[in-house]
Sequence to fold (100 residues):
Amino acid sequence: MGFPSKTTLEKVRSKLAKAEGTLMLSPNATPLEKFRWELCQKFIKYKNDHDLTQDQLADALNVDKAKVSKILRHRIDEFSTDRLITLYQQLNPSLKIRVG
Fold:
């Protein structure tokens, strides 16, 4: 097997340019941004701890798979903090939030 052709490499580069990976937390994130990021981490932990697929998690939350994908990749601009909390409370009704 040889090195991929120039055409193949261009196709791969094109797909990668359109891909949206997981967003990382900025080093200078605000407390709210940190909270929202940590909340997304809770969804990821729940999914992994319960060995769920994205589809199963979407069903448990009663939202579409695309929204779950965004939460799991920390792409949550379209979600209010209240909405994220409400969704997570469906998975963990004993959730307690502290400000401090």
